[in-house]
C-alpha cells in the first residue's frame, strides 16, 4: 500500500480524534496493513500512526 493510498483512506473518515488507536485503524481499513508494518517496516507503521493523528509519545510506545 502506498503512502497516498493510506492518506486517502484516512481522509475518508471523520471524527478520528474521539477514537482509540485501534478504532482509528479499524475504521480506516488500515489494521492489517499496520499489523504487518509494525513487525517488518517500522517507518511505514510510524507513518500510518501519524496519518491517523496519534501523538508522538504514543507512537514511540506502540512501536517500542
Task: State the gist of this model.
This protein is mainly alpha-helical. The protein is built from 5 helices and no strands. The chain is 70% helix and 0% strand.
Describe the protein.
This protein is mainly alpha-helical. It has one domain. The chain is 70% helix and 0% strand. The chain contains 5 helices and no strands. Helix 3 packs antiparallel against helix 4. The chain is globular, with a radius of gyration of 11 Å. The N and C termini lie far apart (23 Å). The model has no long low-confidence stretch (mean pLDDT 95).
Keyword list:
mainly alpha, globular, 64 residues
Largest sheet, described in full? none
Tell me which oligomeric state these chains represent: single chain
Helix content: over 70%
N-to-C order of helices and strands: HHHHH
List the helices and strands and how they pair.
Elements: H1 3-11, H2 21-28, H3 31-40, H4 42-51, H5 56-63
Helix pairs in contact: 1-4, 3-4
Amino acid at each position: 500500500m502506498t503512502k497516498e493510498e493510506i492518506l486517502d483512506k484516512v481522509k475518508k473518515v471523520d471524527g478520528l480524534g474521539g477514537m482509540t488507536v485501534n478504532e482509528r485503524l479499524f475504521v480506516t481499513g488500515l489494521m492489517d496493513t499496520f499489523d504487518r508494518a509494525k513487525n517488518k517496516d517500522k517507518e511505514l507503521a510510524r507513518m500510518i500512526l501519524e496519518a491517523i493523528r496519534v501523538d508522538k509519545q504514543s507512537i514511540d510506545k506502540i512501536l517500542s
